[in-house]
Design brief:
By secondary structure, the chain is α/β, with parallel strands linked by helices. The chain has a single domain, classed as Rossmann fold (3-Layer(aba) Sandwich). Helix content is 40%, strand content 27%. The protein is built from six helices and seven strands; from the N terminus they run H-E-E-E-H-E-H-H-E-E-E-H-H. Strands 1, 2, 3, 4, 5, 6 and 7 form a seven-stranded mixed β-sheet that branches. The longest helix has 17 residues. The protein is globular and about 55 Å long. 38% of the residues are buried.
Length: 189
């Protein structure tokens, strides 16, 4: 009887250790051939948080994670900034179809990654700090201006062991990087 109780307790602890986040919400265009996309550009992510500089940080993480997948050739951020200065006078998350098509032609890309950071916070929880990041990203195809992939994900530093001992096991930057990785993982494995 005692052995059964220990096994049940161990199973419950293992289940709790695996919990700690949500799965990304994703959209993948059912008829789009992603083999067509060879070269992409990452438009600077919009920062909708009070965390100054978080938009630039999440954009850098996104470019690095995208390069690490080796799935696409990625235009250098300086080239993207140059093209945006000539074309876009609006918030980058709100590019018009015409602007998307012009950027695609200017940068010689088949896709543009756009997105926004909607949460980047640190909050006290018990004896520790819990870091939260929420981001949305999408891939817009530059021939038609249609979104062919989109993902939204929330990640935090709260895990089983941090909850048990009241500590944050990862910094805000680590949580942001994980959030970007999980979003991109829905497109590129």
């Amino acid at each position: 009887m005692r052995t059964i109780a220990i096994i049940i307790l161990a199973a419950a602890v293992a289940q709790l250790a695996g919990c700690g986040g949500t799965s990304p919400t994703t959209f993948i265009h059912p008829e789009y051939n992603f083999a067509y996309v060879e070269r992409v550009a990452v438009i600077p992510m919009e920062n909708l948080t009070n965390d100054q500089g978080a938009g630039a940080r999440v954009t850098r993480f996104f470019v690095n994670e995208l390069l690490a997948t080796e799935a696409f050739a990625v235009v250098e951020p300086g080239e993207v900034a140059r093209a945006l200065a000539a074309i876009a006078e609006v918030r980058t998350a709100e590019l018009t179809r015409e602007q998307v098509l012009r950027l695609g032609e200017e940068l010689k890309v088949q896709g543009l990654f756009l997105g926004s950071l909607t949460e980047s916070t640190s909050a006290r929880s018990g004896g520790g700090t819990v870091n939260h990041v929420t981001m949305s990203a999408r891939l817009v195809e530059t021939d038609t201006g249609e979104t062919v992939w989109a993902a939204t994900h929330t990640a935090d530093s709260k895990g089983f062991w941090s909850t048990l001992f009241g500590t944050a096991d990862r910094s805000l930057s680590e949580v942001m990087r994980e959030c970007v990785h999980e979003c991109l993982h829905t497109l590129v494995n």
